[in-house]
Amino acid sequence: MLPPAPAKRTDDFVNHQLQELPLSMKYRETETHFYMDFHSHEGYEIYFFEEGSGYFLIDDHLYPLEGRDLILISPHESHKSSPKLESPSTRSVLHFLPELLDDRSRDYLLEIFSLSLGHRHVRLSEERLTRFYYLLDRLHEDYTARSGDQLMAIRIYMSELLLELRRCWYSESVTETQAADRRNVNPKVEHAIKYISNHFAENLTLELIAQELYLNQYYLCHLFKKTLGITITEFILQTRIHHARRMLMHTDMPISEIAGKTGFNSFSYFGQTFKTITGATPRDYRKKHQKLSE
């Protein structure tokens, strides 16, 4: 069974926008029916979950989401958000390239994105939230205008926002907040995610994963879908294709070999799945991204 193809592929959309301006911004968007594919893209990402609840996945690390939560994603890290659909969720998302920042302060401001995955999630205090909203609002005003002095203002406000986040991340209260949040993550779901991420190249079956977790297959399926909004089979395929994309972009390995190394026993099924998820054949995908890197 092939996973559903998203109506708009998030990575392609973000990469296209970043070619026009080194910043892409979604501002306080509220949605009741939200789907994000498991994806990665150029540039850094600041994901601010303002209202609602759900989960956020970076590689094999699962975070619980509540209002005022902020998550940092580095370039080419596979990730996916999964808000609970019973109530609306509101979020703001910033994607940006490092060249948006001044050379002299760039490494300092981007240091927080190099933290381990266990330390990329924080819940903003009311005091910091007020300051964050001020900078986010100013940034959005100038981002919408996008001309003349606004481009300089975008660089300034973005630097100020990153400086504020750096202060937040290195404050004494951050560790306590993260430790409390981790208790809301279902360990069985996270175990399943880590197991799939470590064994995606093998012949994975639902029965095998359920045995590894000492769970009933049907209960595991229900728990996984409820948490991430996709089935285990869909997650396995998306994980395999994500790794295949990386190999196509960064190696000269034959496509048939890539198919085998990402867990596909059938080359034709690999091609069919790859096109369903990415919108392109493996060969066309490699040509496109090799051309972009020249």
Automatic annotation (TrEMBL):
GO terms for molecular function: DNA-binding transcription factor activity; sequence-specific DNA binding. InterPro entries: AraC-bd, HTH_AraC. It comes from Paenibacillus solanacearum. The gene is btr_13. This is HTH-type transcriptional activator Btr. SMART domains: HTH_ARAC. Residues 190-288 form the HTH araC/xylS-type domain. Keywords: DNA-binding.
